[in-house]
Amino acid sequence: MLLRHVIGAALRRIRLDDGRTLREVSSAANISMPYLSEIERGRKEPSSEILAGICAALGLTLVDLLQEATFEQQSAEAVVVDLTSSPARSAAPSTASVTAIGSVARSTEIALAAAA
After folding, report:
1. Which of 23, 29, 91, 93 is deepest in the core (most CB within 10 A)?
2. Could you tell me the fold of the domain covering 3-115?
Protein backbone atom coordinates (compact mmCIF):
# COMPACT_ATOMS: atom_id res chain seq x y z
CA MET A 1 0.00 0.00 0.00
CA LEU A 2 1.36 3.43 -0.95
CA LEU A 3 1.94 6.07 1.71
CA ARG A 4 -0.50 8.45 0.01
CA HIS A 5 -3.26 5.84 0.33
CA VAL A 6 -2.54 5.30 4.01
CA ILE A 7 -2.37 9.01 4.79
CA GLY A 8 -5.53 9.69 2.80
CA ALA A 9 -7.44 6.95 4.60
CA ALA A 10 -6.24 8.26 7.97
CA LEU A 11 -7.29 11.82 7.11
CA ARG A 12 -10.73 10.71 5.96
CA ARG A 13 -11.25 8.55 9.08
CA ILE A 14 -10.22 11.40 11.38
CA ARG A 15 -12.43 13.91 9.56
CA LEU A 16 -15.45 11.61 9.65
CA ASP A 17 -14.84 10.68 13.30
CA ASP A 18 -14.93 14.41 14.08
CA GLY A 19 -18.20 14.74 12.16
CA ARG A 20 -16.72 17.32 9.80
CA THR A 21 -17.44 17.78 6.11
CA LEU A 22 -14.99 18.08 3.25
CA ARG A 23 -16.17 21.66 2.82
CA GLU A 24 -15.40 22.59 6.46
CA VAL A 25 -11.93 21.04 6.50
CA SER A 26 -10.92 22.26 3.04
CA SER A 27 -11.99 25.79 3.93
CA ALA A 28 -10.07 25.71 7.22
CA ALA A 29 -7.01 24.26 5.46
CA ASN A 30 -7.30 26.82 2.64
CA ILE A 31 -7.37 24.18 -0.12
CA SER A 32 -10.09 23.26 -2.59
CA MET A 33 -12.69 20.69 -1.64
CA PRO A 34 -11.96 18.51 -4.74
CA TYR A 35 -8.24 18.52 -3.90
CA LEU A 36 -8.90 17.40 -0.32
CA SER A 37 -11.15 14.66 -1.65
CA GLU A 38 -8.39 13.50 -4.02
CA ILE A 39 -5.91 13.44 -1.12
CA GLU A 40 -8.30 11.40 1.03
CA ARG A 41 -8.79 8.90 -1.80
CA GLY A 42 -5.03 8.52 -2.21
CA ARG A 43 -5.01 9.96 -5.72
CA LYS A 44 -2.87 13.01 -4.91
CA GLU A 45 0.38 13.17 -3.00
CA PRO A 46 0.22 16.44 -1.04
CA SER A 47 3.23 18.53 -0.09
CA SER A 48 4.27 18.81 3.53
CA GLU A 49 2.81 22.34 3.58
CA ILE A 50 -0.59 21.08 2.42
CA LEU A 51 -0.49 18.25 4.98
CA ALA A 52 0.41 20.76 7.69
CA GLY A 53 -2.61 22.88 6.73
CA ILE A 54 -4.95 19.88 6.78
CA CYS A 55 -3.55 18.74 10.11
CA ALA A 56 -4.03 22.21 11.59
CA ALA A 57 -7.62 22.25 10.30
CA LEU A 58 -8.20 18.89 12.01
CA GLY A 59 -6.39 19.89 15.21
CA LEU A 60 -3.52 17.46 14.64
CA THR A 61 0.24 17.63 14.37
CA LEU A 62 2.12 15.94 11.54
CA VAL A 63 3.39 13.41 14.07
CA ASP A 64 -0.21 12.63 15.07
CA LEU A 65 -1.06 12.08 11.42
CA LEU A 66 1.88 9.73 10.90
CA GLN A 67 0.86 7.74 13.98
CA GLU A 68 -2.69 7.49 12.60
CA ALA A 69 -1.28 6.45 9.22
CA THR A 70 0.72 3.69 10.95
CA PHE A 71 -2.49 2.48 12.61
CA GLU A 72 -4.26 2.61 9.22
CA GLN A 73 -1.48 0.56 7.60
CA GLN A 74 -1.53 -2.06 10.34
CA SER A 75 -5.32 -2.30 10.14
CA ALA A 76 -5.14 -2.80 6.38
CA GLU A 77 -2.56 -5.55 6.77
CA ALA A 78 -4.58 -7.28 9.48
CA VAL A 79 -7.44 -8.00 7.08
CA VAL A 80 -5.28 -9.74 4.48
CA VAL A 81 -6.68 -13.23 3.87
CA ASP A 82 -4.76 -15.99 2.14
CA LEU A 83 -7.20 -17.38 -0.43
CA THR A 84 -4.61 -19.77 -1.85
CA SER A 85 -4.69 -22.16 1.10
CA SER A 86 -7.02 -25.13 1.00
CA PRO A 87 -10.19 -25.01 3.14
CA ALA A 88 -9.15 -28.22 4.91
CA ARG A 89 -6.10 -26.50 6.38
CA SER A 90 -6.19 -24.60 9.63
CA ALA A 91 -7.67 -21.10 9.56
CA ALA A 92 -4.61 -19.80 11.43
CA PRO A 93 -2.08 -17.97 9.24
CA SER A 94 1.20 -19.67 8.50
CA THR A 95 4.33 -18.60 10.33
CA ALA A 96 5.74 -17.28 7.06
CA SER A 97 2.65 -15.08 6.53
CA VAL A 98 2.82 -13.68 10.05
CA THR A 99 6.56 -13.03 9.67
CA ALA A 100 6.05 -11.28 6.34
CA ILE A 101 3.26 -9.08 7.72
CA GLY A 102 5.37 -8.23 10.76
CA SER A 103 8.31 -7.28 8.53
CA VAL A 104 6.13 -4.98 6.44
CA ALA A 105 4.68 -3.37 9.57
CA ARG A 106 8.17 -2.78 11.00
CA SER A 107 9.37 -1.36 7.67
CA THR A 108 6.39 0.98 7.57
CA GLU A 109 7.01 2.15 11.13
CA ILE A 110 10.66 2.82 10.33
CA ALA A 111 9.75 4.72 7.15
CA LEU A 112 7.11 6.78 8.96
CA ALA A 113 9.48 7.51 11.83
CA ALA A 114 12.14 8.66 9.35
CA ALA A 115 9.59 10.90 7.65
CA ALA A 116 8.77 12.57 10.96
Report:
1. 29
2. 434 Repressor (Amino-terminal Domain) (1.10.260)
